[in-house]
C-alpha cells in the first residue's frame, strides 16, 4: 500500500505558512514505514528541533483505479478516517529553500498516524465532515471538509491521473490551519464529528 498526501488544500493553512496558493493539488508520498504502529508513541526524531502536527481527513481506497472520472470517484472508497502528517518543519524549510524534495521532512519513520476508520455511509456528505485535533485536551485544529480547496472526489480524479490507486491505499487530504510544534509528553487526540479515532503520546 502507499500513502498519497495532499498539500495546501485549505486556504487558511496556506496563509499561516505564507505559501503560494497552488493551481493544482500538491502531491507527495509517504512509504508504509512512515506509519506509526498502533498503541506506540511518536518519538521526535533526533534530526529535527521543530516537528509539527498536521491533522488530516483520510480516505481508504477499496478498489483499483486509474484515470478515475470525478463522477465515479465515490465508488472507490467507503471509509473515512483521520490521521496526522508529522512534519519536520525546520528540515522542510531548508529543503524548500534549496528546491529539493520534502521526503526527509515528511516521510520519516512514524510520520504518519492513521486512526480508526468510519463507514462513509455514516456521514450525510463527505463534503461536510467536521473534525478536530486536541493537544493536551485543548483544541488546536478544527475544520470541516467543506473548507477544502479540492474535495475528496476531485482529489481522487486528480491523483489517479498520475498514480494507479490500489486497494488499501490511503489519501491524506490536507491539513487546515492551526499546525504547531510537538513536545515530549504531549498527548494528541483526533476526533471526527465528535468520535475519538486516535490518541497518541509524544516522546
Mean pLDDT: 95
CATH topology description: Fumarylacetoacetate hydrolase, domain 2
Could you give the order of the helices and strands? EHEEEEEHHEEEEHEEEE
Question: What fraction strand?
Answer: 25-35%
Write down the overall geometry. Answer: globular
Distance between the termini: 27 Å
What is the β-strand count? 14
**What is the CATH H-level superfamily?**
Fumarylacetoacetase-like, C-terminal domain
Describe this structure in words.
With about 200 residues, the chain is an alpha+beta fold. The chain has a single domain (about 5-200), classed as Fumarylacetoacetase-like, C-terminal domain (Fumarylacetoacetate hydrolase, domain 2). It contains 4 helices and 14 strands. The protein has helices spanning about 10-15, 90-95, 105, 150-160; strands spanning about 5, 25-30, 50-55, 55-60, 75-85, 85-90, 110-115, 120, 130-135, 140-145, 170, 180, 185-190, 195-200. The strands form 3 sheets. Strands 1, 2, 4, 5, 7, 8 and 11 form a 7-stranded mixed β-sheet that branches. The chain has a 4-stranded antiparallel β-sheet with strand order 10-9-13-14, with no helix packed on it. The longest helix has 11 residues, at about 150-160. It is globular and about 45 Å long. The model has no long low-confidence stretch (mean pLDDT about 95).
